[in-house]
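Students often ask why inverse folding is considered easier than folding. One informal answer: many sequences map to the same fold, so there is more than one right answer. In these notes we will look at a single instance of the problem. The structure comes first.
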């Protein structure tokens, strides 16, 4: 999910602030999970490189935020998710 919000500035103007917000940090949609961002992501040609098709949602949203200078935010997977992951190993 990407949230867009406005903020009032001193002097009466307004400024649009865009925050790329991931509420599914524990999502492992790509199999095997491929959510770890790499420095080399910065040079990926998003529209032409099929490697992005293997990225999970977190990496994908982070790439877009970095490319366009958006702020990033997200939720941790929480205590219950860690327990489920530990039990499944």
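Output (designed amino acids):
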């Amino acid at each position: 999910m990407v949230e867009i919000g406005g903020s009032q500035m001193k002097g009466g103007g307004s400024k649009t602030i865009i925050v790329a917000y991931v509420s599914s940090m524990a999502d492992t949609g790509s199999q095997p999970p491929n959510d770890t961002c790499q420095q080399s992501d910065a040079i990926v040609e998003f529209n032409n490189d099929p490697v992005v098709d293997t990225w999970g949602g977190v990496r994908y949203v982070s790439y877009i935020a970095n490319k366009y200078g958006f702020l990033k935010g997200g939720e941790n997977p929480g205590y219950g998710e860690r327990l489920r992951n530990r039990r499944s190993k």
